[in-house]
Write a structure and sequence with these properties.
The structure is a single chain. The protein is α/β, with parallel strands linked by helices. It has a domain of 111 residues. The chain is built from 2 helices and 8 strands; from the N terminus they run H-E-E-E-E-E-E-E-E-H. Strands 7-1-4-3-2-6-5-8 form an 8-stranded mixed beta sheet, with no helix packed on it.
Length: 167
């Protein structure tokens, strides 16, 4: 194989490597699967959305069925208003519940849907009434430390043996 053939192969190898990096970047940014199908929008209101971002996945049983379209704040209630684009191939009962969940311990957040049992389905512009806000790790740690401080201040260390009294 001549010098020109080797240079061509090296060039193709570099091009394939760059295409692989672009693919990984799109997957990491949740831009790789655009869906492209028809969707309908529903809203859900949360007291705390944590680190949820637009384009975050909407999942049911681990399967992505949509994306977060937008996030805003209701000026009257000061709740986070999340608009979800759900693929039209999936229809969910009106009493479906939405939770903000985290992938792994410190992973990205997504919306998890739990379908209800109502016979009527959510439609364009519908509202998911049952929601559960994001669990914020800092709040959990603060609650744990506060409860430990209260326990320590109200009687000493747990499991300490009572002092013996001598006659």
């Amino acid at each position: 194989m001549g010098r020109k053939g080797i240079e061509t192969l090296v060039g193709l190898f570099v091009l394939l490597g760059l295409l692989g990096l672009v693919f990984l970047a799109l997957q990491a940014a949740n831009l790789g699967s655009s869906g492209g199908g028809a969707t309908y929008s529903v809203q859900a209101r949360f007291d705390n959305i944590g680190g949820l971002k637009p384009r975050a996945p909407v999942r049911v049983a681990g399967v992505t069925v949509g994306r977060v379209k937008s996030i805003g704040v209701d000026p009257a209630t000061f709740q986070g208003v999340v608009t979800l684009d759900i693929e039209k191939t999936y229809s969910f009962p009106k009493d479906t519940a939405a939770k903000i969940l985290t992938s792994g311990l410190l992973g990205d957040q997504y919306i998890g849907l739990e379908p209800g049992g109502d016979e009527a389905n959510l439609a364009e512009g519908g509202v998911i009434a049952q929601t559960q806000s994001a669990v914020v790790l800092e709040n959990l740690i603060g609650q744990f430390l506060t409860s430990r401080a209260d326990t320590a201040g109200s009687g000493g260390a747990a499991g300490a043996a009572p002092a013996e009294s001598k006659p």
